[in-house]
Amino acid sequence: MAGKFQFTLEEYQEAAHKYRSDLLRLPIIGIDETLKYMTPRPGIRYKESVADVSGNAQFAPYKPSRSTDFNLKMNFRTLETFFGSVHAKFEPNSAISTLMGAIAAQTKGDAQMKAPTALEVLGLIAKSTSENLNNAIWKGRRNANGDTSMDLFDGFDTITEKEIEAGNLAAAKNNYMKLTEAITAENAIDVAKAILFSLDPRLRAQDCYMFCSQDFADKYNEAFQITHGGLVYNGQYNQDTIEGSNGKLHIVPLFNKMGSKFIHICPKVNMLVGYDQMSDSESVMVKEFEPFILSYIATMFFGVQFESIDKRRFKAIELSDDDPAAQEEAQG
After folding, report:
1. In angstroms, rounded to a whole number, what is the distance separating the alpha carbons of residues 199 and 173?
2. By the 8 A CB rule, do 297 and 38 touch?
């Protein structure tokens, strides 16, 4: 151990215990680039019913004798979070060296500084788990025997596929459409307008996000530049809303949508991300099972769901079979 930083197991165990809630929050904070467009639901362990509520009560001209039956409709969906765990072995000296190198690079200094604390080392590990959670938000597919974040829960794309197979998402319900041609830089605006015009008027009237890949956003921007380059109002290259939507349909390209065969349209409130963080069921601990090697062990709940797939709240657009992104998804 000569020339190495000193550490004690007790220091790491104390940090894990004292800062348990902070360490459990880091994976959620780490997916903020996606989560900021969605609605977080903390305090969810296993299953919770969410409902799209509607009714038929209405005002009419005053009549003392008039009464009607109020038909309350509640379309329930289940937001399920799954209990997951991580067991990450780490060599403290290597982790400390990595952190010191990163700090030195950011400050343009050298690594001759105070060694990071046990909390900072554990924070590095905790935050690193967020990247894999982020990747799974769309494409995750629940496999209880799996070993990765992709196996922990069904992502939004997987839920969409299952709802299509069940007939709950269908063209006849106006909550689903399949494109008939691949999206290109030449037709992206026409495709986007066809999608916009197909939306239920009540969905179109809301501020909605169009969750898509960066590839779609690039093609839309290119098409917009080609067709509108000479117009005075075209003051920027990156378009953040679909033309004709009155600024209500916002283009949201996400890196974890790369290769997705779906575009999703709905308001922020409809995209639910569930986790716990409010009970003692989730834990963080550090153990030493091998000499000089520590194990970061943590458990947490996580899952996603659409609050509603009613046409007034949601629409899924599937890319055509000849679109490169759809072919990539099929091969992947």
Report:
1. 11
2. no
pLDDT tens, residue order, the chain (332 aa): 344 556 788 888 998 998 888 888 888 888 899 999 999 998 888 888 776 655 556 665 656 766 666 555 666 788 899 999 888 888 887 767 666 555 544 445 454 555 568 888 888 888 888 888 899 999 999 999 998 999 999 999 999 999 999 999 999 999 999 999 999 998 999 999 999 999 999 999 999 999 999 999 999 888 887 776 555 555 555 678 898 899 999 999 999 999 999 999 999 999 999 988 877 888 898 998 888 788 889 999 999 999 999 999 999 999 998 877 766 665 55
Whether the Cβ atoms of residue 286 and residue 88 lie closer than 8 Å to each other: no
Strands in the chain per DSSP E? 39-41, 47-54, 73-80, 82-90, 176-178, 208-212, 249-253, 262-266, 271-275, 283-290, 293-306, 315-318
pTM for this predicted structure: 0.82
Tell how far CA 30 is from the center of its chain: 11
- The β-bridge partners of 317 are 177, 263
Q: What number of helices (H) and strands (E) belong to the chain?
A: 10, 12
Domain spans of the chain, in order of start: 7-51+75-332
CATH class of 7-51+75-332: alpha beta
178: helix, strand or coil: strand
Residue ranges in 36-146 assigned as alpha helix (H): 92-107, 118-139
Q: Please give the Cα distance from 95 to 122 (Å, whole number).
A: 9
